[in-house]
Design brief:
By secondary structure, the protein is α/β, with parallel strands linked by helices. It is 30% helix and 24% strand.
């Protein structure tokens, strides 16, 4: 082998090695959804402080809390999945391709369940969640209550129903908590919020059934009402917030003002807590 050929082969090998090293060193792109949630801001900070990741934040609104973080490289908006699922999934497919997304980070029940249920339609990227069935079981309050009771974990007495038609109103002990199995339910192509309510007599229970017609076709519990007084004394430990700010305070024209909030510490002394961001 001549020296010229040896140098050429060596140069090609080194060039290929450097090329793949550069590719491996490129930051992974993480798309944090539900950017107006404080949990999304926490995720953005926790991930973005590492140089091996680039964080893009997104939400259905024109402005969002996590979008102001210094760790958010870009903020984008998407069609609200609570209104219509199909446009959201179509947008997500394009966003993954356009921004070369490596990881998806939804932080609310609606986006998480929507993405998991439609995972087959998405380009290849990582989603840090268990299987859809597992997540659904955890989200299901009825299933969780039954599981807790079976394991010997104390729970309020609960009766489980699949429809309001199954309820014998004359046998209900009042007051009673009406608790849908799921906080969010999917009807056709959109999500609906459910509500936990308290009925103090049969008339109120009938009214709740009329006002929340999704109970006619969605499972729910009638749960024992636990009446416990809430009070503070020297025997109760409470959290104390301090004025120290852990992390950056978002800045920009969308931040209208910063106001400290007084809270009560465990010594019942009013102190100054974290500033609250008020958006216009």
């Amino acid at each position: 082998m001549t020296k010229t050929l040896f140098y050429r082969i060596t140069s090609i090998k080194l060039g290929a090695r450097n090329h793949f090293s550069r590719r491996n060193m490129e930051p992974k792109v993480v798309l944090v959804l539900d950017a107006n949630q404080r949990s999304a801001l926490a995720a953005t900070r926790a991930i973005g402080c590492h140089t091996q990741y680039t964080v893009i934040t997104a939400d259905a609104s024109n402005k969002a809390l996590a979008g102001h973080s210094k760790y958010s490289s870009d903020y984008i908006t998407y069609p609200d999945p609570a209104v219509s699922i199909e446009p959201f999934i179509a947008w997500l497919v394009q966003a993954i391709k356009k921004f070369n997304i490596d990881f998806l980070m939804p932080v609310t029940e609606i986006t998480s369940r929507t993405i998991l249920e439609n995972k087959h339609a998405l380009p290849n990227c990582h989603l840090p969640f268990a299987q859809y069935k597992t997540v659904l079981n955890i989200s299901n309050k009825s299933a969780l209550t039954k599981r807790a009771a079976a394991l010997g974990v104390p729970t309020p007495f609960s009766e489980h129903f699949t429809s309001t038609a199954d309820v014998d109103l004359s046998s209900v002990i009042y007051p009673v908590v009406v608790k849908p199995s799921l906080s969010r339910i999917k009807v056709d192509d959109q999500w609906l919020n459910t509500t936990v309510t308290v009925a103090r007599n049969e008339a109120e229970l009938r009214q709740i059934f009329l006002e929340h017609d999704y109970l006619e076709r969605q499972s729910f519990m009638l749960q024992e009402f636990i009446d416990v007084p809430i009070f503070l004394d020297n025997d109760v430990n409470t959290f104390t917030l301090t004025e120290k700010w852990f992390g950056e305070i978002p800045s920009g024209p969308k931040v209208e003002s910063l106001k400290p909030m007084p809270v009560i510490s465990s010594t019942k002394t009013a102190i100054r807590a974290f500033p609250v961001l008020l958006y216009s």
